[in-house]
Amino acid sequence: MSGVAVVGGQRQRLRDLGGAGGGGGGGDELKHSDGPWMRAAGGAEALHTQLGPVKAELETAHEGVVAGTAGLEALTELGAVRESWQRRIEVARGECRSLAGNLRDVARAQGETNEAVRQSFAPVAARGGGQ
Description:
This protein is mostly helical and 131 residues long. The chain is 65% helix and 6% strand. The chain is rod-shaped, with a radius of gyration of 27 Å. The relative contact order is 0.10.
């Protein structure tokens, strides 16, 4: 049953799934582009970079608040909130950095898999079985 899928209760060959002509107008080859993965990785890196100065900006903003609220009980609560946000910012930066690397890894792995699959069909195509 290789190369056959069940769609809507009917068996179809993979070449038929693309519509008339077998490829939906794009030919008979499944093509992969790493562009979307790389753009997403770039976006994650940009967010990581943009979050970089936020911790220092938050610290600077709180310095002014501390000076104006000396002796108030809310100062302790405010400090706890600031520390919580600083931790969250660092976690978000770490996630963005990790995500960027993972997205690039996916693009690379898909490209390698596509090439391996293409090469695995090369002997069949060479015998004229590719069509």
